[in-house]
Amino acid sequence: MRFLATTSFRCDFGIAFDIDGVILRGPVPIGGSPQALRRLYGNSGELKVPYLFLTNGGGIPETKRAKELSELLGVNIMPSQVVQGHSPFRNLLKKFENEFIIATGKGDPALVMSEYGFKKVLSVEEYASYFENIDPVFQYKRWKTTPISDMKTPSMPRCDVSSDRIKAAFVVSDPVDWGRDIQVLCDVLRSGNLPGDANRSQPPLYFAADDLEYQAAFPTKRLGLGAFRTALESIFNRINPKSLEYVSYGKPNPFVFKNAEAILRQLQSSSCLDHSENNGMSESHPFRTLYMIGDNPSVDIKGAQQTGHPWFSILTRTGVFRGNDNDAEFPADLVVDTVEEAVDFILKRECIS
Ligand SMILES: [Mg+2]
């Protein structure tokens, strides 16, 4: 008979951490996040509790984000543990793999899409650069722009912007140049083709998230992707006879939480210590509880509650929410000051502290 120290431990729970306003503010760890995460690993650095990051942010490939987070937080984070707003765009590969698409947002939106396997993608920045004066105030923009020749568009079959029809537009992360992007997206979405062409049906438009506001490095909330969507939609609907059609991903969409549960189950069976009863063979079993730790009641808490069992919502006071009590509209199952306090609560409740 063999006794394992881990026999009593069943990882029938998992954790999803929001990033902005919970783990980081800008690039700075907050709320004791490095210490809190370290408690989810065993002595030799193995993952003890299945957890992932569930953020509406993005703009860089999951592989790169996992590396950045590992360095900032001092633990080894795998790319599969990073679920960003745009991660579900992967599921649209079948539809658009070989079609001409455009992508916008901070960071490297075309690289993100090409890492998912999309073969003909241009950033809106690069697409716009083929049309002289498409942005009428371009010459007044004093920030540094990237010469087309230096753009990091990954090698791919070249797109011919003068003849290829755009089959879809993706807003991957917060756009940097709202004015140019609204202009170019209105052009493309109205014509389904070259700017100024006759009206045709609108190509599909996808947003990675729909947060109106979020907590970044500035002390008060900043306008998010949902604010950009509102601006684009409002302008488009004024200049086009048909209303804008679009699909938004990201929290609070229950789809995101169901997808997170599926990923946590894979982590549970591949990484956790619960192998004692199967001679080392791993087996996943249903989660009793999944904890969502977030700072935004209308995004993190609303999403967990709408999804229902097995989600349990924990609201921190380090980001969007700063109240003394609980949020009035979307009250969380638990309110704590910091993510460290949240992890402490979870580990005590699950009897593994
Ligand atoms: Mg947040």
Automatic annotation (TrEMBL):
One of its GO terms (molecular function) is hydrolase activity. Gene3D superfamilies: HAD superfamily/HAD-like (3.40.50.1000). InterPro entries: CDP-alcohol_PTase-I, HAD-like_sf, HAD-SF_hydro_IIA, HAD-SF_hydro_IIA_CECR5, HAD_sf. The keyword Hydrolase applies. The keyword Hydrolase applies. GO terms for biological process: glycerophospholipid biosynthetic process. This is HAD-superfamily hydrolase, subfamily IIA, CECR5. It comes from Corchorus capsularis (Jute). The lineage of its organism: Eukaryota, Viridiplantae, Streptophyta, Embryophyta, Tracheophyta.
